[in-house]
């Protein structure tokens, strides 16, 4: 109809034919056009930053014309990418939530990047060597590279330093264990009668975030959330997760220092910025927002432990979907390498608050300067020493939701942790059944 | 109570002193206020400078130093005039084709006799029970095969036939006395002429009720346009706006969101205010409440 693609194609072809006739010496077919799907996980202004980044790439690469296609949240991006692969129109590259890679690889929806790395005269080890080792877990599947880390995060503990001082706590010695954190949260909660005017701590629980926070708490409680080697098993009904969920639920219903119910990320960051919550656990991806909006002194610290220090990786990697033509694959690879280079990686990190996955980014002069001015940006990088891969299984999103639905019921006071976890395990086992039937339970 | 008395001065003499209508008015005013508050907040938040900080964000009192910064920010992030145009094209395109298809289909189910009429009608209605998400992949494959991927026509296509509209028109047409059609038949009117001159004019309220439902639902649709459209210049408003509002890792700039939302709903709101009376009467006469 109005802007039908055929019409546009026709016009473009007519145009290029006219161009070819006028300039017979020029034999080129024009730039390779590629689409990059990108979600905006943190703040609307990032869409503008992404525009700047892609424009710079196109200006420097006249043979490629990349278009940045905004694709909603991480979950929406997965839906759109899958639908476009099935419909035979895959984009050349996607910024994909790092934990969706395993599921996509199982479904044969990813391009193996090994040949592209080899064609550059590099080895897998050299290529992965640029990035923080903790990120490999979500990028390498069966010893092949399927994703390139681009914007990555770990959860952090944010503390309102002014309120801490007011309550007689030393913000330079942040809580290191759950016991200390509970104690801080109690001291930082203010009540007028039955009404709470200031919460001690807030931890987000909404789809996507909730699973990530449960993984964080379970890991600091000594546990594992899923089988890192195999996509068919999750460990929901285990002592380490029961302890984690019970502690979280105690903060809400026993100590009453955490707002009840399932709170989405933006509500948590808003209440922290407004002084309504004195501490919060949130992604380092929110750091730039907090820095720009907090009207008080704040501190960023490691996630406190019960048994050990550990955090999951978050954020997104660049992938090439299956079924992309060879010339577009090559162009996409050029774009991916450019976007993950030390300079661009560092620039994106400063714009967003995500840490830069490329280790050399921290040696660029701009970044050294930036870290001197904003030492809080170092914490996420320091935490990488104890970081583990992000939850990834067959059918990651439904399996994640199996747990999240139950955790929300617990935080709403409608279920006890034990029965919730039993239910979550049962639902997840059911979701994972087809994959296990094909793999671990398929006996010779 | 003065306000109510003022509103009440046109009421018939006999009811002027009764208490129940007064309570009704009071309730209406309360409901109107409850409806108005989010809009009021949106307006206030749009004009609030970010220097006010997030503490004041939830307040309904306007800032003393209003600013247009948020509107400028939202305007810069998205090409809103273009999004408006795209959404308008999508909604009008869908509606125009729907008018033709639901009239013909509704007439067929109401007045024509053909084999398997009832089962076919029920099959048609079953479409109402399908979750649109289920159809995303098959619909998208079809759109690609037709060469309509990344076009506005591709966004519109799946909605050209409407089960709800067909059902609505069937009900409307069935309510029209067959004698009128018989008279036209005697005068030698063709099938199309009978539809055009008898059924359509007598069902106008149903058509406008359907138009409201169709336009608002497609104006608000997010997932399907997100699937079909890649080019930034073909985005509709919802996809453009979601750049501000869809976040996973937990930050939001409320001022810009309010400004963006205001820009998106303003045209619908203005249309509603202008055609308010007509909308309400069409719903009342068509029997959807």
Number of helices of chain B: 14
Q: What's the gyration radius of chain A in Å?
A: 24 Å
Oligomeric category: heterodimer
Mean pLDDT score of chain B, rounded? 84
Which chains make the largest contact?
A: A-B, 59 and 50 residues
Shape of chain A, please? globular
Helix % of chain B is 55-70%
Our estimate of the beta-strand percent of chain B is under 5%
Structural class of chain A: alpha/beta
Cα(first) to Cα(last) distance of chain B is: 30 Å
Report the order of strands and helices of chain B: HHHHHHHHHHHHHH
Q: For the residues shown, what is the average pLDDT of chain A?
A: 89
Radius of gyration of chain B: 24 Å
Shape of chain B: flat
Helix content of chain A: 40-55%
What is the spatial order of strands in the main beta sheet of chain A?
A: 2-1-3-13-6
**Count of DSSP E strands of chain A?**
14
Give the number of helices of chain A.
18
Q: Tell me about the biggest sheet of chain A? A: 5 strands, mixed
Textual characterization of the structure:
The complex is a heterodimer of chains A (444) and B (289). Chain A is an alpha/beta fold and 444 residues long. Chain A is built from 18 helices and 14 strands. In chain A, helix 17 runs antiparallel to helix 18. Helices cover 69% and strands 0% of the residues of chain B. Chain B starts with a helix and ends with a helix. Chain B is mainly alpha-helical and 289 residues long. At the A-B interface, helix 2, strand 2, helix 3, helix 11 and helix 12 of A face helix 3, helix 6, helix 7, helix 12 and helix 13 of B.
